[in-house]
Design brief:
The protein is an alpha/beta fold. 33% of the residues lie in helices and 19% in strands. The protein folds into four domains: 186 residues, Type I PLP-dependent aspartate aminotransferase-like (Major domain) (Aspartate Aminotransferase, domain 2, 3-Layer(aba) Sandwich), CATH 3.40.640.10; 120 residues, Aspartate Aminotransferase, domain 1 (Alpha-Beta Complex); 155 residues, Metallo-beta-lactamase, Chain A; 104 residues, Oxidized Rhodanese, domain 1 (3-Layer(aba) Sandwich), CATH 3.40.250. The chain binds pyridoxal-5'-phosphate. Its EC number is 2.8.1.7.
């Protein structure tokens, strides 16, 4: 159960054992330069020739060209350069050329970026035109038909890398023929190799780039097909390798490995059939439906590669899904580029007019044609585990009420945060500063834990609380009278919550809130909540141990101390980070040290491996750090080693504790990802 399940095949694949052997042979036994005429060189040339012969047959290159290169990005450059140079020459000869460089809206970035780059560099000044796609990711063929007579170059991918959607190349070919279009045609075949039949010379396609690392060859090797008669200009000039088409001594290890993959493909007994792959996808989809209620698939399965699933789950961000899968050692990717706080929407799903929640929350699960039964079965079990972890953490609806939390919970987004004061015994809570983006999350948390919300208060008079109040239903008495800050008219000086009390402190137009033992003597105030730290107002009401909990937290500080910032002491600070090698020695020297997992509770619950150094760890997610910091500071001699997946979150936790004066707080550098497998797996 502890091995990694790699379901990110559209990003890259592992290398086929036969390809590793071929690469090792090319570097060990047959290390010659294929351009040398002596025996050592001839042995290497035989490897090169064999790989090429196999590629020519497999892709149906006919009289066309096929050159090895560094991968698809290079192939795309060469194709675009070749087409644009020819267009410029034709224009200079006075021939009419189209004015448009048309590319599909869901193309890999390498295509529009290359078009813009070479169009500018060659001074062509043609117009880039993004061809829209429909809800199913299919190109707008009516628009392409209308544009075809003015198109100079058309770029469409064979299959999309995010969704696996397959382009109807036959329809495009027919349309170009019917309109008498003179356009050159580039088809990015990266995701199609090994998954779709290609017989290139029998098509109208002029340029087809390929990449080895998407089909079990190493990174840094690829191929470009150019149709016989299509214009060609080398991108790289020099020693004339590859028949003068691509100079530079060949990447023989890569070519030998790619040759081994192509040979396996040609032989036909290594990779799974379309039917088998489709049945694997159906099983994964069933598990996702069972584990993640409401999951939506972002592409029609019958029109996409059988190896790709792209999905979104209502109420969950792609970051949360990525994190829970990663904790279960299932490697997937988010369909979009993630920034630290918020995921940027996927341009592919945007082009398909998917709603924002689906486009920004998309996850891609993809496997290669080497996938096997056992891996898919294991992946399905882990998907179930991830679903259970998310249910237990109230991130997706659950029929059972979750075990209630006690203390403080911080929910943040982009530098601002809401705080929840929770009392498990009375199942009641108070919300401080509900952020608009957090309202759905707070609501489902309250419902799932079955809390009664005693008050929703704000540090500034604002309307967001009304939105949350409206959403909470029977969990909150909307009719209770409050002031503009949500403070209940019935609560005189303080609201009692379990054994604690919350008091409100007026400060000009803003309010601060103090939380501590009933009576709220300064010595017993544990937390002070405020929009901006207001030390002058708060100091007489609090004590040195009180933690300041800001509702703006741009720098991810979680909480601050009331004391003045510590001035440099004579004693040198111990290092903040321990790497996994140093951790063993540290734990031997400090057997009382506590290992703290700061990942979210759903990641902790989905985890399939013991903590670092094989020791069990305690789960204190960053959202609960303030609550626990207050207790840890009471005995700051116990070392705390924070860890997370990559070391980023644990570093913030350790920095927070150090700032608060805990000199024995550390972060595991590189996180679980870099911990040796014996420890992390
Ligand atoms: N085109 C598509 C569809 C891809 O998926 C990729 C890789 O992500 C590329 C082009 C670029 O390929 P390479 O990594 O070989 O440069």
């Amino acid at each position: 159960m502890t091995t990694e399940i790699y379901l990110d095949g559209n990003a890259t694949t592992a290398v086929l054992p036969a390809a590793i052997a071929a690469a090792a042979d090319a570097m060990g036994q047959r290390y010659g330069n294929p351009s040398s005429s002596h025996g050592t060189g001839l042995k290497a040339k035989a490897v090169l020739d064999q790989a090429r012969a196999c590629a020519l047959r497999l892709l149906g290159v006919g009289d066309g060209r096929l050159m090895f290169n560094s991968g698809a990005t290079e192939g795309i450059q060469t194709a675009v350069l070749s087409a644009l140079v020819a267009l410029r020459e034709r224009r200079e000869r006075g021939e009419a050329i189209g004015s448009l460089l048309v590319y599909g809206a869901t193309e890999h970035k390498a295509v529009p970026e290359s078009l813009a780059h070479w169009n500018r560099l060659l001074g062509l000044n043609l117009t880039l035109h993004k061809l829209p796609v429909d809800h199913d990711g299919a190109h707008d063929l009516a628009q392409l038909r209308a544009l075809a007579p003015q198109a100079a170059l058309v770029c469409t991918m064979a299959a999309n890398n995010e969704t696996g959607i397959i382009t109807d190349l036959a329809a495009i070919s027919a349309l170009l023929a019917e309109t008498g279009s003179q356009a050159y045609w580039l088809v990015d075949c990266v995701q199609a190799l090994g998954k779709l039949d290609l017989n290139l010379a029998a098509t109208r396609i002029d340029y087809a780039p390929f990449s080895g690392h998407k089909l079990y060859a190493p990174k840094g090797v690829g191929m470009l097909y150019v149709r016989a008669g299509a214009p060609f200009t080398p991108l790289i000039m020099g020693g004339g390798q590859e028949g003068g088409q691509r100079s530079g001594t060949e990447n023989m290890a890569g070519i030998a490995a790619l040759g081994a993959v192509l040979a396996a493909l040609e032989q036909g007994d290594t990779f799974r059939s379309h039917h088998q792959l489709a049945s694997f996808r159906a099983r994964l989809a069933d598990s996702l439906r069972a584990a993640l209620p409401g999951v939506v698939f972002n592409h029609p399965f019958d029109k996409s590669l059988p190896t790709t699933l792209n999905f979104s789950v209502p109420g969950l961000t792609s970051r949360e899904l990525m994190d829970v899968f990663d904790a279960a050692h299932v490697r997937v990717s988010s369909g979009s580029a993630c920034s630290a706080a918020k995921a940027a929407p996927s341009y592919v799903l945007d082009a398909m007019q998917a709603p924002l929640w689906r486009s920004a929350g998309a996850i891609r699960m993809s496997f290669g044609p080497l996938a096997d039964e056992a891996t898919i079965a294991d992946a399905c079990r882990r998907i179930e585990r991830c679903g259970a972890a998310l249910r237990a953490s109230c991130l997706i609806p659950s029929e059972r009420t979750a075990v209630p939390h006690d203390g403080l919970l911080q929910l943040g987004v982009e530098g601002a945060c809401s705080w929840l004061v929770l009392d498990a015994a009375s199942r009641s809570c108070i919300v401080i500063d509900p952020l608009p983006d957090m309202i759905g999350r707070i609501e489902s948390y309250v419902r799932c834990q079955n809390y009664q919300v005693q008050a929703i208060v704000t540090t500034l008079p604002d309307a967001d609380r009304a939105q949350l109040a409206g959403a909470l239903g029977r969990h909150f008495d909307v009719h209770a009278a409050t002031d503009a800050y949500g403070w209940p008219a019935s609560a005189a000086g303080a609201i009692q919550i379990g054994a604690h009390a919350l008091a409100s402190v007026a400060d000009g137009a803003s309010r601060h809130y103090l939380l501590g033992a009933i009576g709220l003597a300064p010595q017993s105030v544990r937390f002070a909540f405020c929009a901006q730290p207001a030390l002058d107002v708060l100091r007489p009401l609090t004590c040195a141990q009180t933690l300041l909990c800001p509702t703006r937290d741009e720098h991810n500080q979680f909480c601050l101390g009331m004391a003045e910032p510590a001035t440099a002491t004579a004693q040198a600070e111990p290092p903040l980070q321990l790497d996994s090698a140093a951790l063993d020695a540290f734990l031997q020297a400090h057997p009382d040290a506590q290992l703290i997992d700061v990942r979210e509770p759903y990641e902790f619950a989905a985890t399939i491996a013991p903590g670092p150094a094989g020791r069990s760890a305690r789960s204190v997610p960053l959202s609960r750090l303030a609550e626990h910091a207050s207790s840890w500071l009471q005995d700051a001699s116990v070392p705390l080693v924070f860890f997370c997946r990559s070391g980023n979150r644990s570093l913030k936790a350790a920095q927070c504790l150090r700032r608060l004066g805990h000199r024995q707080a550390y972060s595991l550098g590189g996180g679980l990802a870099l911990a040796p497998m014996a420890l992390a797996a």
